[in-house]
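Dear Dr. H.,

I hope your travels went smoothly. While you were away I took the liberty of generating a structure for the chain from your last submission, since the lab meeting agenda had it listed for discussion. I wanted you to have the full record in hand beforehand rather than looking at slides cold. The sequence, exactly as received, is reproduced here:
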Amino acid sequence: MSITQQYLLDTHRAQRLGEPLPPAPGANDWQIVRELRDHRRFGAVLAQRPARGRIRRALDR
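The corresponding predicted structure, in token form, is as follows:
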């Protein structure tokens, strides 16, 4: 069963039971990527690793 078919089945089931519809596949992908990036940056701060990339260039100014 594909992701689209599962989503349609879940949507149909939710409508029949009067429950809120599930989010569409891929709707929260960018939010997850941002949260993962923030988590890695936070871990770097706790481990006292130096900043890299754009953050480092901003701190050097």
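Two observations you may find useful: The radius of gyration is 20 Å. The helical segments are 3-17, 29-46, 53-60.

With kind regards,
E. W.
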